[in-house]
Each structure stands twice: as C-alpha cells, then as structure tokens.
Amino acid sequence: MDEGQARELLGFLHLDTRPDIKGQATGYVLGLTGSVEGRMLLAGRPDFLETLLLLTGDRSLAVVKDSYHSLINLSVAAATHGALAKELPVLLHRLLDPGYAFADQVCTLLSNLSREEATCRQVFWAMQEEGLGLAQVVDAFCTKGYNKKAALHYLGPLLSNLTQLPETREFLLDRSRCVVQRLLPYTQYEASAIRRGGVIGTLRNCCFEYKYHEWLLGAEVDLLPFLLLPLAGPEEFPEAEMERLPMDLQYLPQDKQREKDPDIRKMLLEAVLLLTATKAGRQLVKEKGTYLVVRELHQWETEPDVLAACEKLIQVLIGDEPEAGMENLLEVKIPKDVEEQLQRLDREAERQQETQSKGPGAQMGSQGLSR
Q1: Cα atoms in the 13 Å half-sphere on the side-chain side of 276
Q2: Kindly report the CA angle at 220 between 154 and 271, in degrees rounded to 5?
Q3: Cα diameter, the chain
Q4: What is the C-alpha radius of gyration for the chain, rounded to an integer number of angstroms?
Q5: Are 136 and 179 in contact (CB under 8 A)?
Q6: What backbone torsions phi and psi does residue 114 show, to the nearest 5 degrees?
Q7: Is the C-alpha dihedral spanning 62, 65, 71, 72 positive or negative?
Q8: Distance between CA atoms of 38 and 69, rounded to whole angstroms?
Q9: Mean pLDDT throughout 286-292?
Q10: Residue 96: CB partners within 8 Å, gap ≥ 6?
Q11: At a CB cut-off of 8 Å and minimum separation 6, what does 330 contact?
Q12: Going by C-beta distance under 8 Å and a sequence separation of 6 or more, which residues neighbour residue 328?
C-alpha cells in the first residue's frame, strides 16, 4: 500500500463516514493487521493508530470490535506503544467500567502494552494519575461477574506484566493488605489458562522479593502448596514420605491431573526455585517434601524446557548448602566472564531444546493475535 492508497483508506476511517463504507474499511484494516507485512506497514503510521483509537468510540459495534482487534494485533509491535499509550486514561477507565461491553478487548490491549518495561511503567503511572490503583484491578480480577459482558481473563497477564515493577510487587506483598492471598485460589482456575497463567506469573515475579520469602512460606500465606499442587500427580507415597508433604498434597485422588500447560508448569517451578534463594527459604521448601513432588514430575515430564527447570530445582533441593557469605543466591556476584559463559551455555541449551521439541522446519505460533 503506497502513500496515496493509505491516505485514501484513512479518508474512510472517520466517525461521520457512512456506516457500510466505514465497516468495510475497518474490516480491510483488520485483515492487514493479520499478517506480518500488514502490521509492519501500519505500526509506523501513528495516524492509523490514532484513527483506530478514535473509532473504538463509534456507534457501530462491528466497527468498534474490528478497531479493537486491529489495535490488539498492532500492539504486539513495540513500535506502536508510544502512540497507543497516549490513550491510557481512556482505556483504563473503560477497563474498570463494570458495564463496558468491550472490556475484554481493552484488557488484552493493555496486557500487550505492558509487556515492555517502559510502557508498563506508563500504564502504572496512568493508573495512579487517574485514581485507578492496583487495588481496583485486583478487585475486578477477584470479583466474579464484575463485568457481566466481559470475562476479564487478561487481567491475569496484565497483573503479571505490572509485577515487572518493584512498586507493584511491593503493593501485592504488603502484609496489611492481604492481596497476594486473594490471588492464590486462581493457581488452579480451570476455566481459563490465561487467567491461571497470569496469576502464576504474578506470584513468580513476587518471589524475586526475597525479603518476603519467610512470610510467603509461613502460615499467614502458605504459598508453597499452591505452587506444588498443580505439579503433583496421583502418585502414592510411603507413609513416611506422605507425612512430609503439606496436608493439601497428601492422599491425592487417582484422577488428579497435573497442570496441562507446559509454560505454566515451568513458571511454577521457577517460583519454587526463587523461594530457595535464601537459607531460610531453602530449609522451609525442603522440609515440606518439595523434592518428592518434583521427583515424580521429572519422571512424568516430556517438555525439554520444563525438564531443565525441574533439574535446576532438584540440584538445589538435594545439593549441599552454599559457602558462607553466598547463602542468598539472588545476591551472589558472578564474575562477568563466568556470567557470559553461562549465558552462552543457556542459549545453546535453549536452541537444543527447541530443535528437540519443534523438529526441523517447524515454526512457533504468534501469540496475542486477534483476527
């Protein structure tokens, strides 16, 4: 599409354009955003982005829907985030409006925008400036039927993205608020892997704050069973081993299923691994029979990257304690040359795993695209 064709198409994308013509034009734009070439073409055109944002306020529901889906597709590219972020106040108010019919689309769009740290911070500050804090987002997430016209499952990934920021982690881990406890039941939310995965990503990110580990593992939160239960199968253990497990993991039924999504299984393992960063955390995690669950998972698991995460955790669980002064694994200073070598080995391992799991010539599917 050359400049002349682009201007002609833009001419049809106005609120006062005849509805049938406007509908055809937004449908055409949506088709363009369904391909890599089309997204690259439109991502560098702020005029198109601004026009599509304007059309999300159109009277025609079909035009609004196509405009949102086009924006969702385009927001996969970081190049669009600057232009889209200008409308954050409007989008945030729509997201938390219990009667807004397109809140799901807004939620997905904000989830895409918040993937990059710079725009994530813009989303966070826009929430503060608009008086729409994290407490309201958590309320919307945890309130069944908050919006009867929208499921709001993508609030999970949005929260997970926001926990890139230390400010968000501090809010969720504030002991006086009891926020993190409200999220725990969603680690086994069967109705949506998106919501479930978003919560587990949120909890994993919170586990980077090692000063809260003893509280998270203690009776007030008791996080560990919520991380281990999705990883557990129907295996039976000898009585002595069974007694080491938390009550929620003892005598599980024969039809107990493990978490089906390998990405979520990997995040669960990463969260447990983070909880072993301190000496006190390692002791608590070991005492609760974590090794037994991870050992059985390792025998069952077939996904290479999840197996690798299993093995890293097992090494910590059965390995010797670090030397004095190195007890906190998140604070250990690694020499630059060693770090570079480890990163190179990690990249090689990832390439090997992709070759094994995808096979020659296979391609990974795009995420977050709406057609």
Answers
A1: 24
A2: 50
A3: 76
A4: 23
A5: no
A6: -85, 5
A7: negative
A8: 14
A9: 95
A10: 132, 136, 137, 140
A11: 208, 210, 274, 277, 278
A12: 210, 277, 278, 279
**What contacts 133, CB < 8 A, 6 or more positions away?**
127
Cα–chain-centroid distance for residue 236? Answer: 33
Q: What are phi and psi of 340, to 5 degrees?
A: -65, -40
Report angle CA 7, 9, 15 to the nearest 5 degrees. Answer: 105
Please name the residue that has the structure tokens 């995690």: 285
Pairwise CA distance, residues 106 & 96, whole Å: 10
Q: Minimum mean pLDDT among 8-12, 36-40, 337-341, 362-366: which range?
A: 362-366
* Residue 152 and residue 141 in contact, taking contact as beta carbons nearer than 8 Å: yes
pLDDT tens for each residue of 2-40: 677 778 888 888 889 899 999 999 999 999 999 888 888
Question: pLDDT for 126-170, tens place per residue?
Answer: 999 999 999 999 999 999 999 999 999 999 999 999 999 999 999
The C-alpha atoms of residue 299 and residue 294 are separated, in whole angstroms, by 9
By C-alpha distance, which of 275, 265, 273 is closest to 306?
A: 265
Burial class of residue 41 (count of CB atoms within 10 Å of its CB; 0-12, 13-18, 19+): middle
Helix (H), strand (E) counts: the chain: 22, 0
Contacts of 54 (CB under 8 A, 6+ apart): 15
CA distances from 190 to 111, 174, 216 (A): 21, 28, 24
The answer to whether the beta carbons of residues 214 and 280 sit under 8 Å apart is yes
Residue 354: enclosing H or E segment and its boundaries?
helix 336-358
Residue 294 near residue 310, CB atoms below 8 Å: yes
Query: Which amino acid would we find at residue 347?
Result: R
Contacts 24+ apart (CB under 8 A), 190-195: 192/151, 192/153, 192/156, 193/260, 193/261, 193/264, 194/153, 194/154, 194/156, 194/157, 195/153, 195/155, 195/156
* DSSP string covering 65-128: HHHHHHHHHHTTSGGGHHHHHTTHHHHHHHHT-TT-TTHHHHHHHHHHHTTSHHHHHHHHHHHH
Contact 334, 342 (CB under 8 A): yes
By three-state DSSP, how is residue 328 classified? Answer: coil
